[in-house]
Amino acid sequence: MKRIALLLVLCLTVCASAEKFKGLAPTPPMGWNSWNTFAMKIDENLVKETAEALIASGMRDAGYNYIVIDDGWEAMERDKQGNLVPDPNKFPGGMKALGDYLHSKGFKFGIHNCAGTKTCSGFPGGRGHEFQDAITYASWGVDYLKYDWCYHGTANAEETYRTMGNALYATGRPIVFSLCEWGSNKPWEWAQDIGHLWRTTGDITNCYDCQETYSLGWKYILKSQIGLEKYAGPDHWNDPDMLEVGNKGLTLAESRAHFSLWCIIAAPLMAGNDVRHMSNDVRDILTNKEVIAVDQDPLGKQGYQYMDHPGKQIWVKELSNGCWAVCFFNNSDEAVKLRINWANFPFLAGNYEIRDLWEKKNVGTTAKNFEGKVDPLDVILVKLTPVKKAEDSKK
Ligand code: GLA
Hints:
CATH architecture of the largest domain: Alpha-Beta Barrel
Shape: elongated
Bound molecules: alpha-D-galactopyranose
Strand order of the largest sheet: 9-6-5-4-3-2-1-10
CATH topology of the largest domain: TIM Barrel
Low-confidence stretches: 11-16
Order of helices and strands: HEHHHEHEHEHEEEEHEHEHHEEEEEEEEH
Mean pLDDT: 95
Distance between the termini: 66 Å
Helix content: 25-40%
Largest sheet: 8 strands, parallel
């Protein structure tokens, strides 16, 4: 009874307006999500082992602090009061205990559900239960909700997501709201005051150039981000989907390129690999602090494609303190030689020190042409720092 009265009060207070917790995602959220590698094969042990591996590998300390349990955590039915319940076999300790565990290890707790009547895998969805479910999530200590779009019927996306956003806000618990409606209704045009990030495409899959109805290689996702840069900023990010870095189907170079370009476009960095069993090379990609800093730059500007020559794509991102990140991406199947005359980058002003972020070394200044060789589906990623600033910081 008490619960129903509380629900009613919450709904009356906030149903009419749009509210979201501000300041929860000043830079794109980072973490790990179970879906890309494990799909429905998830349980409490996997989550705990993943948490341990994120700590041991240095990923947590590099910023990957949300652990998001995707589809497959629920029991097939709600309980008699209509509350969501976890699958008792997969999560015998319950979600509150798991949330407490994650918090005790310095993580934030993320969970998945769906704005439709069912999740894409057929578990209870949130439709018609938004305020009740938000209270449940808050009571479990959830910090991040990824909200999908399967089984939505004729529902209006903006209204539906607004209702869930309001429900989360009404709980009083700061919960990052991640809209996952695949860009179907252009959420970048209406979701700024509803959520903190929104998916822009269908699902990513573990390859560069492949395409199926519901899954896309990262080539296609990257292409469809062009033009979306103006919609992103602190607390409202385009989400080109989780990372496939380190997953079978991508060479190391492809993983490095995928990661670099996701950082250039200020993507949320949600690792999607089995971090318990990754190679040192994959770990080194995911934990390269200077590359992550491009993604997490406090200016909060999404980068954009500056040039699209075959084999010589150039992507750039404006950074704080007058700096820029520039990514040379070889999208061809032959190695290419670069000879870059910085005078062709009119947004640069003056001389800059160039740092190669994968080689981790300074490689001259923009006063001279920049030369390099890029292997197929690999990148050179550099940061440009105005010479004066670079000198000041050495003082
Ligand atoms: C959709 C989402 C994916 C994942 C699955 C789970 O396809 O886009 O990211 O959450 O649902 O079923």
